[in-house]
Amino acid sequence: MRAGLLSDPRVVSLLRTLFVPVHISACNTPDEMRDARDAALLAKYDATTFRGGEREAFVLPDGTMQQVFLSLNGCDLTSYSGGRCHYTAEARRDEGAVRLFRHRGALALKALHGDLPGPWRETWDGGGEATAAIEAAAPVWPEPGAGEQGFRVFVRNSYRMYDDLHGAELALVDAATASAWGTGLSGAGDEAALPRPAFVALARAMVPRGQVATWLAESSIAGELVLHAEHVDEHTCSGVVTGRFDLAPQQESEAGKRPEAACRFRSTGQLAGRFVWDREGRCLRELRVVAVDVAFEWLPRTGPDRQPVFAPRHQVGIEWLNGPTGKAR
Amino acid sequence: MARPLLPPWISCVLAALVPAQEPQLAAPATFDLDAAFAAARPPLAEARWTLIPWRHSLTDALVEAKEQNKPIYLFVNDGDVDSGRC
User: Fold this and answer.
1) Nearest CB to A24: which of B6, B43, B76?
2) What is the CB-side half-sphere exposure of residue A81 using CA atoms within 13 A?
3) To pair with A146 at 20 to 30 A between CA atoms, which of A70, A91, A237, B23?
């Protein structure tokens, strides 16, 4: 999440109680909108303002949209002079990153209620139980649904003026592929490669973040993920996981759906980890893998403004999850 | 307690398993898998946005805002915020 204020516990607590929090994609990427009606609605407000990039605004229940602002830049959209403000991870945690939210949020609440609600004042005066609860809560990462299984992939990377972007998503594996993957591991030294279609899905979830709907063609993906049996008994098989990957979009359209901002990249490296296979249940019980020895570079098409400000970095962590009514976890 | 990912003997075995035409990707001899995995996950200080009950329809949210008499906080960004593809 680029807008670091959205992980401030006070902001999260207030969004959960005093506001209706909405995220939608911008006018220039209507295919990414989950409600097709929003494209026309957003355009009716201001098609130019909402054409690309992060934007924030409070909207009153009668539909009145207040001043559009951008916490990352620390100012209303019309006041932005081009200087960077809260783009690095450290700056996004700075008190200044929430200044505009506090200012604009108070105006919206006053416009609606005539005064600021008690929880708003208490939160900014020093916290409160709700804020403390948010501070202590674990993040909510994507989980497989009932009967589903697959990889949960975490990604962190640098991108242009951002030193630390991140993402998390599932790469689900169909039940037949999942149960067949390790079935042949009957003795130490046996190995089993993840079938190519499942590897492609996994690789697509590993892409660096920062661009819209990055989706690599199959021809832009090379690599493998292999289970190597070390210890086998009648119940389980455990061992190491090895692999390699080469993610190299050939077309800018694969790198991102926002043409003016799309930037090709190449990321290569190894995959290393451990696994436990349930021989009786014919399913993975555990798997944890990370990318190692990663060589990563952005391949901007032109101009110094496209050059990355921070050294390219691409980290990947992968774990296996079985859904709640799936096989043993 | 983190364990070495690959003992030296299996590194040799795995290297021998790699086909000759492929680049020889030496597996690390010692490796803290859990620490590396934790480092690849977003830090908690930047992950609390997952606790926000995002609505993904502004049209529907306007109805909800009217029913609950609450302002909408609208965050617009290209792409999908949940997966970080934005």
Assistant:
1) B76
2) 1
3) A237
Strand, coil or helix: A258: coil
Q: Does B15 touch chain A (CB under 8 A)?
A: no
pLDDT, tens digit, for every residue of A228-275? 999 999 999 999 999 999 999 999 999 988 777 789 999 999 999 999
CB contact under 8 A, B51 and A209: no
* Pair of tokens at residue A36: 């097709």
**Angle at CA of residue A246, ends A243 and A252, nearest 5°:** 155
* CA dist list (Å): A17 to A35, A90, A123, A135, B69: 24, 27, 11, 15, 12
Amino acid of residue A155: V
Answer yes or no: do B71 and A19 touch at CB < 8 A: yes
- Whole-complex ipTM: 0.88
The reported pTM is 0.86
Cβ pair A135, A9 in contact under 8 A: yes
C-beta of residue B77 within 8 angstroms of C-beta of residue A123: no
